[in-house]
């Protein structure tokens, strides 16, 4: 672990880079986004969102038909979509809204089939435009998790090319502003951990997408219960599984920095320690800790810390935080780590940040700190 003096120097250098970057870019360029899960409507309606903290909110998720690749919107969902866009448009300040297509629970097969032919791509694209206009969204976000091989990546590039052509055409015909096209993507430009090695089509992304949301989290979790981990580590001296590596990989591959949005988690991953005395990052574990499948929202973490008088530790080496109470261990981001991450993002000249997901915050504590830390916005 770095010494305290080294950490202070690092913070100062990062701040100076961030400040110079902020002075070189107009404030209106920044993106402050958050995903809104549709299953939160009953406990956290769109009216609950403090829109002063965000510029873009993504409705998660809509999924196209598995055969036709059109969006079949049921009456109940239709009501939710109208409520979502009308509410956020009427709030002051208002925010831009997009609907996100797919999600982690959907799997890659449906999108692989959709993107495989010109006809199926066009059906999907036209339906997405129809949905966006009908429910008054400002755009759409493709969350294909994940293209599985080189052919999928080639088809993704063609899909994005075709999508942008149709969006431009629709805008010219209707004389309305072009719909936004974004995508949620892997933290790294290439997949080097499992499956066939493949890389995202950076040239097509630069040309066709307004920006991409890098999912800079879930590096560790319930799939490995042998040791604790910083699931959204900015740095990892022992591997390439870190946000800094992922960001550098995209930039090295030629991705425009103005297209890159850093993902931040409003939740933590939990483990059960083998020995409560040994509780650092990477400490031996024997299973999952509290929460649903070893996951707690930031709100739940704050309550856990208070109820259990937990020990809270900031880890400067990874730029993350963890809490310990007995054998329960939780790794997450707090206001300190969020501020450091955003200073790093600004030093790299990124476009902005987003959260998964907006309902996980505690009294807007993290979201407010993020906005304050994002000098450019």
What does this structure look like?
There is one protein chain. This protein is of the alpha/beta class and 377 residues long. It is built from ten helices and 14 strands. The protein has helices spanning 4-24, 75-90, 109-114, 118-134, 150-174, 202-208, 243-252, 298-308, 335-347, 365-373, and strands spanning 31-37, 56-62, 96-102, 139-143, 180-185, 211-214, 260-265, 267-273, 285-288, 295-297, 311-315, 320-325, 328-332, 352-356. Strands 1-2-3-4-5-6-7-14 form an eight-stranded parallel barrel, surrounded by four helices. Strands 8, 9, 10, 11, 12 and 13 form a six-stranded antiparallel beta sheet that branches. Helix 6 (202-208) links the parallel strand 5 and strand 6 (211-214). Helix 4 packs across helix 5 and helix 9 (335-347) packs parallel to helix 10. It starts with a helix and ends with a helix. The relative contact order is 0.14.
Mean pLDDT: 93
**Spatial separation of the terminal alpha carbons:** 32 Å
List how many beta strands DSSP finds: 14
The number of helical elements comes to 10
Overall, the morphology is globular
- Low-pLDDT parts are 1-28
Supply Rg.
Answer: 21 Å
Going across the biggest sheet, name each strand in turn: 1-2-3-4-5-6-7-14
Order of helices and strands: HEEHEHHEHEHEHEEEEHEEEHEH
Helix content: 25-40%
Specify the biggest β-sheet.
8 strands, parallel, barrel
**From the helix content, strand content and strand pairing, which structural class follows?**
alpha/beta
β-sheet strand percentage: 15-25%
Keywords: Glycoprotein, Glycosidase, Hydrolase, Signal
Pfam families: Glyco_hydro_18 (PF00704)
GO molecular function, one term: chitin binding
Family: Belongs to the glycosyl hydrolase 18 family. Chitinase class V subfamily.
